[in-house]
């Protein structure tokens, strides 16, 4: 009798991703793992793709062969990290492709009745949740044997009544289904969105962006009830009340299937929006003004074409990795940094006294994104004269702002960090005080950080927000002694094997469960 792992919070695809990561971390090929398990390489490929159920016996054997605790049988046990800090890092680490770009393109694949192949997709929880939702409504989503590329083929008709409610409610990205779905059906419903604990984030800007396309949404009973009316003029003008990334993406996806010309003003020109524009162009949708705040979209009533697109690299991951080198006073090289989206961050770091070198530019796999390799050198930092605050692109990225809190803690003087976008994220960064930092919360949006810090090890519960959680982990790399970061599952929402990759640079990190 075959016993199948059943866990409402862990999908077969996620288990497959864990197995693939553990195998790669041990330097094994699929064939080598198959030989040790007395099975075939094709079976290992199916397991890692999440397309084959696992018995308890097989999972136990995989755990033993890989010397890993991939999944507890029964009640799920949270993962924790034990960090021995104060170690200098060295070597080169490569930036992965964008998590936010991947999520947007997965949603945008619903625009296309043909086959979409996405290259080098980040295997993270957020991506797996969207893939689960797509599969639940009839989309065929198949990972390549190496687990890097994803082929997506929508059905002729989506079965929205079968949507995976649990997966949908656990990602705020589900709201980006509104734009592509309004071009496919006259009425539908989506579960309320979830995501990080960052305070109140209204969905009203999305509604304002999509009303010109005939979308009307009523939020009731835990669902978005959506109705679409026709009769829109060919020429549409959409003014976004918020220059948000996902708001812009929703408007872009709606415009792509509108048979006419849509002008979107106050649009975000950020990296994930540009990725979406490049993909839409492959679909035959003409987009003028890419990289600016005014987009002119020539939509198509039908899109049915087979396309392949390579995602751009993630500037937020690039900032995370650079921060690891900065706070540990190490010399490391971060390769494949999308420089267009990091220039303000690097200029701010230069003002603080960071010494770094940049390679000549080269093109990303998509042929559009400009990349460089950045090497950071040990530096004595000082607090900047002005506050550090985010702005819409080309300003300092809002998701990169938290990393400046831990960087400021290593600098001499007092730095003010102003997070005017999120209500609660600054509060989570006060957990740095547990590791010895002098962080004062001025209000829910502003922090004063005074350094330099004499970091010391401590036990900290992981904040319920992705970037602050990674900031605490990076501070632990700098802290002498042993630290424990409890409940780190949220980190896998936005990073693929972050701790394993830091280990390759010389970090001492151990994953354990109670």
Descriptive account of the structure:
The chain is an alpha+beta fold. It is built from 17 helices and 23 strands. The longest helix has 14 residues. It starts with 11 loop residues before the first helix and ends with a strand. The N terminus is likely disordered.
Descriptive key words:
514 residues; alpha+beta; five-stranded mixed beta sheet; 23 strands; 23% strand; disordered N terminus
Q: Which percent bin holds the helix content?
A: 25-40%
Low-confidence spans: 1-9, 194-201
Radius of gyration: 23 Å
What integer is the average pLDDT?
A: 89
Number of strands: 23
Describe the secondary-structure layout.
Blueprint: H1 12-25, H2 30-36, H3 41-49, H4 56-66, E1 79-85, E2 90-94, H5 99-108, E3 116-119, H6 125-136, E4 140-143, E5 150-153, H7 165-169, H8 178-181, E6 187-191, H9 204-210, E7 215-220, E8 223-228, E9 235-239, H10 245-256, E10 261-265, H11 271-282, E11 286-288, E12 294-298, E13 307-310, H12 315-327, E14 331-338, H13 343-351, E15 355-358, E16 362-363, E17 370-377, H14 401-410, E18 413-418, H15 425-429, E19 438-443, E20 446-451, E21 459-461, H16 466-478, E22 481-486, H17 498-504, E23 508-513
Parallel strand pairs: 2-14, 3-13, 9-10, 21-22
Antiparallel strand pairs: 1-22, 1-23, 3-5, 4-5, 6-8, 7-8, 10-12, 11-12, 14-17, 15-17, 16-17, 18-20, 19-20
């Amino acid at each position: 009798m075959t016993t199948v792992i059943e866990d409402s919070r862990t999908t077969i695809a996620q288990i497959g991703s864990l197995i693939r990561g553990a195998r790669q971390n041990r330097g094994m090929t699929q064939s080598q793992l198959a030989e040790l398990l007395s099975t075939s390489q094709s079976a290992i490929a199916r397991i890692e793709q999440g397309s084959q159920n696992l018995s308890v016996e097989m999972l136990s054997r995989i755990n033993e062969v890989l010397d890993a605790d991939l999944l507890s049988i029964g009640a799920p046990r949270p993962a924790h990290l034990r960090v021995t800090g104060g170690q200098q890092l060295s070597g080169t680490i490569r930036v992965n492709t964008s998590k936010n770009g991947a999520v947007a393109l997965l949603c945008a694949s619903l625009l296309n009745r043909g086959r979409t192949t996405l290259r080098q997709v980040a295997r993270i929880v957020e991506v797996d949740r969207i893939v689960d939702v797509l599969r639940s409504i009839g989309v065929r989503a198949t990972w390549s044997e190496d687990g890097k590329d994803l082929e997506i083929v929508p059905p002729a008709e989506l079965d929205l009544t079968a949507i995976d409610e649990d997966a949908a409610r656990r990602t705020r990205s589900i709201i980006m289904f509104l734009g592509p779905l309004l071009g496919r059906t006259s009425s539908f419903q989506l579960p309320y969105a979830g995501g990080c604990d960052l305070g109140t984030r209204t969905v009203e800007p999305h509604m304002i962006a999509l009303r010109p396309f005939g979308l009307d949404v009523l939020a009731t009973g835990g669902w978005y009830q959506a109705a679409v009316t026709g009769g829109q003029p060919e020429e549409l003008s959409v003014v976004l009340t918020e220059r948000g990334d996902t708001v812009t993406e929703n408007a872009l996806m709606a415009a792509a299937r509108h048979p006419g010309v849509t002008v979107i003003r106050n649009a975000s020109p950020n990296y994930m929006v540009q990725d979406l524009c490049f993909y839409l162009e492959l679909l035959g949708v003409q987009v003028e003004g890419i990289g600016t705040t005014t987009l002119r979209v020539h939509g198509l009533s039908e899109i049915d074409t087979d396309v392949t697109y390579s995602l751009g690299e993630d500037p937020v991951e690039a900032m995370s990795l650079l921060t690891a080198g900065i706070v540990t006073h190490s010399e490391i090289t971060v390769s494949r940094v999308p420089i267009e989206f990091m220039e303000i961050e690097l200029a701010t770091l230069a003002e603080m006294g960071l010494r770094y070198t940049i390679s000549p530019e080269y093109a990303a796999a998509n042929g559009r994104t400009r990349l460089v390799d950045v090497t950071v050198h040990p530096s004595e930092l000082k607090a900047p004269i002005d506050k550090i605050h985010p702005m819409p692109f080309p300003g300092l990225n809002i998701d990169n702002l938290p990393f400046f809190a831990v960087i400021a803690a290593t600098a001499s003087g007092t730095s003010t960090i102003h997070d005017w976008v999120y209500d609660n994220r600054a509060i989570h960064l006060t957990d740095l005080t547990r590791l010895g930092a002098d962080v004062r919360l001025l209000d829910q949006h502003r922090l004063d950080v005074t350094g330099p810090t004499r970091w010391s090890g401590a036990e900290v519960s992981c904040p319920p927000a992705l970037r602050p959680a990674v900031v605490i982990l990076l501070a632990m790399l700098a802290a002498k002694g042993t630290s424990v970061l409890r409940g780190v599952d949220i980190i896998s929402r936005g990073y693929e094997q972050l701790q394993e990759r830091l280990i390759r640079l010389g970090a001492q990190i151990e994953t354990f469960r109670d």
